[in-house]
Structures are given as structure tokens and as C-alpha cells.
């Protein structure tokens, strides 16, 4: 739908199920990005650990998603993870990326979204949420920009503004971040001027 298209080069597709506001306007308002972890920053698989026994849960993150998160931080966006699981791997990743917000063991993501907005001092329309499964729906419905990886649950795909071409843990987050940076006029700087 042309009115939903931001007019840029970043791939992915506006989702059909959500709203008539121009996507570009939604994207340009974004000042913070909250992300579910499993199925968004990972492919959804993990090797269970035992925190009490000192055995960490193991997850696999994608380096291009990681660089996308660094690009977002360097561009002035605030970042947070809102995850249902508790994992040393996630805390380590959050520390590496100097995240602004981290909620673990969180199955009620709507209130977590509100808490993050208050922490950031931002309105819901200034905060994006990226999720892949039904427990993310309350936060996705509140978010100014709701996005999902290509392999998200069908109920999520119907509820978001934007669906990445890539699946979770395989570049979806990078694509979503680049779409936001493009709308903010910061993509060229993030791609070509941060690193030279
Ligand atoms: Mg998930």
C-alpha cells in the first residue's frame, strides 16, 4: 500500500493488518526500541542452563543484529530488552551493548512497555517494540511502531506495522533498525560514517 511505504530502500514490508497512518511518520517519531529476545534476537532455540549450578543458558545471536544495535545507540536511540526468560547470556549481551532498559522473567509485556516509557521519559508513540509471539502482543499494540521478524507467529504478523524479510536471529533486527534510522535521516551516517 503506497501510503504505508516510507519510500526508502530498506527491504521488508509494511504489514497489512495495522492502521492507516503513514509508516514514515510513525518511524520518524521513534526515540527508543524495545526488543523481545527469544525468536527476535535469536532463532528461538536455546540450550537450557542451570543458573543455581552456574551453568549458563546458551543462545546464539547474529553479529549483524548486534552491529545494528550499536548503530542505533550511536544514533541516539535508547534500547531495551523485555524477555520472558532469565539468562546470563542476555544480561551479558545487555551489558556489552550498554542497554538502557532490561526486564527479564517478564511475561506481562504491556506493563513492562509502560515502565520502559516512564524510564525513558517518552510517550508510547516514541517507542518501538519488536516481538515474535503472542505474549508480545500487549506491548506491540501499545508501541508507536510495532515490528516482527518474518517467522513470527501469524497473530503477531497480523498485529504489527512492519514485517522484516529476515527471520528472528538472522538479521530481522538489523533490518528493522535500519528502517528506523532511514526515517530519522541517520541511515547513511550509520552505514558509512561511523566506521571510517
Ligand atoms: Mg519471543
| CATH fold assignment | Rossmann fold
The top-level CATH class is Alpha Beta
User: What's the number of structural domains?
Assistant: 1
| Spatial separation of the terminal alpha carbons | 37 Å
Molecular shape: globular
Please give the largest β-sheet.
7 strands, mixed
Distinct small-molecule ligands in the complex: magnesium ion
Q: Could you list the spans in which at least 5 consecutive residues all have pLDDT below 50?
A: 1-9
The fourth-level CATH homologous superfamily is HAD superfamily/HAD-like
Q: Kindly name the structural category.
A: alpha/beta
Instruction: Kindly provide the radius of gyration, computed on alpha-carbon positions and rounded to a whole number of angstroms.
Output: 16 Å
Fraction of residues in β-strands: 5-15%
Number of helical segments with 4 or more residues: 8
CATH architecture: 3-Layer(aba) Sandwich
Write the layout of secondary structure elements.
Elements: E1 13-14, H1 23-28, E2 32-35, H2 63-74, E3 78-82, H3 88-96, E4 101-103, H4 109-120, E5 127-130, H5 137-142, E6 145-148, H6 154-157, E7 162-163, H7 172-183, H8 187-193
Parallel strand pairs: 2-3, 2-5, 3-4, 5-6, 6-7
Antiparallel strand pairs: 1-7
Helix pairs in contact: 2-7
Bound molecules: magnesium ion.
Magnesium ion (MG) is lined by residues 36, 38-40, 132-133.
Could you explain how this protein is built, in words?
The chain has 196 residues and is an alpha/beta fold. The chain has a single domain (22-43, 55-193), classed as HAD superfamily/HAD-like (Rossmann fold, 3-Layer(aba) Sandwich), CATH 3.40.50. It has helices spanning 23-28, 63-74, 88-96, 109-120, 137-142, 154-157, 172-183, 187-193; strands spanning 13-14, 32-35, 78-82, 101-103, 127-130, 145-148, 162-163. It has a seven-stranded mixed beta sheet, with helices on both faces. α2 packs parallel to α7. The N and C termini lie far apart (37 Å). 43% of the residues are buried. It binds magnesium ion (MG). Residues 36, 38-40, 132-133 line the site of magnesium ion.
